[in-house]
Protein 1
Amino acid sequence: MHILIIGNMGYIGPEVSQHLRRTFPDAHISGYDTALFADRLTCEGPIPEIVLNKQYFGDVRYFPPSLLEGVDAVIYLAAISNDPMGKKFGKVTDEVNRKSCIKIAQFSAIAGVTHFAFASSCSVYGCASDHPLTEYDVTNPLTVYARSKIEAEIELKELHSDRMFISCLRFATACGFSKRLRLDLVLNDFVASALQFREIRVLSDGSPWRPLIDTRDMARIFEWAITRSGEKFVIVNAGSDENNYTVKQLAEAVASQIPGTQVDVNHDAPPDKRSYRVDFSYLSRIAKNYVPQISLAHSITSLIDGITECNLAQIPVFSARLTRLNTLSDLIATGKLGPELYWSTKNVSQNKKSFENVSYNQ
């Protein structure tokens, strides 16, 4: 089996790469990434990509179809990956999250790829209702990021291929430790704040719902998506019914595991419309052996242990360094990155297509 992970050098990619290597020890696994966050390593030690057979460096907006030769499965993780970045880089968000995904899916179908797995998001639901939302409920994307995901799903559904299985995985909010940790995710942020300051500030009134999924469970669901049979095209909520929580409940769960932590809820905050409970029963029916197994308590424990082991809470700047929008803003401010998020350093040609054939072999 030859697996290509596109966007593998972010928060989720390291866990996906390592899980697939453990599961398929003889597979040829390669990655493709523009390396915006490559140096945002959580701890010292070998880079996560050491488990890959080959790492390509390039921008998905100029993806070379030749890299798909002999590939059996493609995992599309590449994304401008949250609401603040989507708001600031709206055009790029659409180009990376939707346009490039569709283009690469089309290339994949032509190349004979048999499985294409797209990392979508439960954020497409947008606003809470009086019941947990299923794949058949109306979507209501409230942000540029969420719109890019639902529009990509729609166009993937229109991509007809007799051979290729397409899976749109509407993941719950990611959480848990990673070798490239992100602290602009709700649970991760709460744990980091509690460890560093013994305080969690909930900027909303705490009532919005957030389903969660640990990165290790995400990796298992990707395994299912690139090996599954059945329907050629599926959209599936990826998470578990047990892991639907309000933001306040998440803060309290973190505080219960880190003694002395105070939770400060902003009861005067305006309503946060980004609130949704999600029904994950379809996943349990079609992929019963891959349903999430990691509880909220275990995700919190993994974050506490990882941050403590890496001594991050003792580093004053660690929160800013592991926040994606701050990383991009710093790269732009220092002239290393252009406003459209193309590299502009002396080490990389201004010609965007120069990325295409840069790689390293393991």
Note: The chain has a mean pLDDT of 91.
Protein 2
Amino acid sequence: MPVKAIAAKYRVHRGTIPGLVSRAGGRLRTPGLDDDSRRRAVALYEAGLTLAEVAERLGVDPKTVRVAIVADGGTIRPRGRHFTPPVREASE
């Protein structure tokens, strides 16, 4: 269950949850994308979607998508710009 959801349910600050989990001997999951989701994020971004659009499709934060793209060697476009991939001419 996401930390934000737990914090909302018990009406505590989200920063309180990790400490409680650690003291109870639990572990927090590592946020991020698995390999398949990372490849999908990179492909969607390269196809022209914004970080926010990719994040919405994958159900993650845009920062998570950005980290995945940079880790894959990609370059982040200027904010708010849609990328239009070059049109490939049909081979005759």
Note: The chain has a mean pLDDT of 85.
Protein 3
Amino acid sequence: MAKVTVRYWAAAKAAAGTAEEPYEAATLAEALDAVRARHSAELARVLLRCSFLVDGDPVGTRAHETVRLGDGGTVEVLPPFAGG
């Protein structure tokens, strides 16, 4: 299992009640499952609309189970942003 930092932005930060927190997970799917287990249903709803960066790289449409996490890495949780 990799030790990663999950960083929340905008609505995800508000729903999580924190800007970032540590998790241990091998894949993005495992990390997001742990996030959902730790937090309220509101954050789970926000996550449905989010995009993700893993170590600065967009996840895009890749299945979250296939996105491996590296030790010391960062997952950015990015809700849709208004504006240009």
Note: The CA atoms of residues 1 and 14 lie 27 Å apart.
Protein 4
Amino acid sequence: MPKSVDRGRRTREQLLDAAAQLVGEVGWGAVTTRLVAERAGVNAALVHYHFSSVPDLLSAAALRFAERILTEAADVLRSAEPAAGIDRMLDDLSRYTGTDPELLLLAEAFLAAHRLPELRGALAALVADFRGRVADWLSGAGVKDAEAIALLLGAAIDGLVLHRALDESVDFRVVAGPLRRLVAG
């Protein structure tokens, strides 16, 4: 791979990381090209070289994190039978404090998605894929109403993450019992 391609990929990653950090600090609407460039340690022109706009950059950062967290959650769930998968998923999610820049980015992205149709469509696709993977896992384990329960699990994860963003004392594990009973059918 040519050095310029590798350098360009690194710069793009630096911009995405900087944007994710900044949304958590100043909010989606206050992130500017200048702030991102300063945080990433690059020339401001590179922001628009890699992304058509700041909302495009923020959307890309949010989608990168959403894909990662949803994939990790689905993989953790599917690594065990349903009740144990719930415990593992909640333990895994507990690493997020509620003040993590990426979780704050995700919370703001859900709100911004109503104003940005491309972001909304991409987030909806990621969430639908997550629900499908979880429904397949539940169905394979013989759980009745697997699709409905996958929807409830997805909504529960979203709600828990939002609650943790508001109150970092929220302990995800307190809902383990009810969620285990839900997937036990």
Note: Residues 55-184 form a domain with the Tetracycline Repressor; domain 2 fold (CATH 1.10.357.10).
